[in-house]
């Protein structure tokens, strides 16, 4: 069992739900990365998803695109992020999950990427433009380094494919709750609750819901049908506006969700 599975099963068996905040590495400068990770851990995050700035982030909405542009403008590179993570990792004990596209990984070199992730203490990778049919190009190397490839399913994924992906899944299954890109939303499709319950039935690993989640109410509602949530754009926005206490409030809203079942 790697750190993700270990720590998540501990929390879940205590009756807790999971909350994974996303941050863009290099937004605000790489100097703040370590303090932000430490703060998120202190606020109760179950793990942290770290985005790598990239010029063509096809799954990202405006908030994360802009955060990526800010990070690129101050010169952030994948190499710098990995070096910085290696320095700050000893301060953090929760799992760290890298979120990047295939192109920056290939430009950097798959082998070098995997070994540097291992040195930086990365526990999982989300690569949204890597379908299961293509994952052979990297999955064995990641697994060999003790890093889980986190697979995604969406509301348009056919049922048999969800099952196939869930069976292969490691760490947790990322369930995309919207038909579209990342970003804060006011409403979700009415069938979402049934969809999440269906994915949960297909999966023996934890199921987390992400995309469009930004309010304590949404956090509570969605986590009733699965094991927890991922929140990206809202966290990015709150860090930018220096509204740190709101981040704390949002993460704390996951607490007590099991009582509402
Ligand atoms: O920003 P949102 O709507 O809260 O969505 C999650 C999210 O940002 C993060 O998980 C993410 C950012 N970019 C991605 C690309 C693919 C999958 C997931 C992501």
TrEMBL record:
This protein's record includes keyword Amino-acid biosynthesis: yes
GO molecular function: tryptophan synthase activity
Complexes and interactors: Tetramer of two alpha and two beta chains.
Keywords noted in UniProt: Amino-acid biosynthesis, Aromatic amino acid biosynthesis, Lyase, Tryptophan biosynthesis
Top-level enzyme category: lyase
Pathway: Amino-acid biosynthesis; L-tryptophan biosynthesis; L-tryptophan from chorismate: step 5/5
Organism in which the protein naturally occurs: Gottfriedia solisilvae
Alphabetical list of InterPro entries matching this protein: Aldolase_TIM (IPR013785), RibuloseP-bd_barrel (IPR011060), Trp_synthase_alpha_AS (IPR018204), Trp_synthase_suA (IPR002028)
EC number(s) stated in the UniProt entry for this protein: 4.2.1.20
Reaction equation(s) it catalyzes: (1S,2R)-1-C-(indol-3-yl)glycerol 3-phosphate + L-serine = D-glyceraldehyde 3-phosphate + L-tryptophan + H2O
Keyword Transcription: no
Gene3D superfamilies in the cross-refs: Aldolase class I
Protein name: Tryptophan synthase alpha chain
Residue positions of the active site: 49, 60
Pfam families: Trp_syntA
Family indicated by similarity: Belongs to the TrpA family.
CC annotations in GO: cytosol
Function field: The alpha subunit is responsible for the aldol cleavage of indoleglycerol phosphate to indole and glyceraldehyde 3-phosphate.
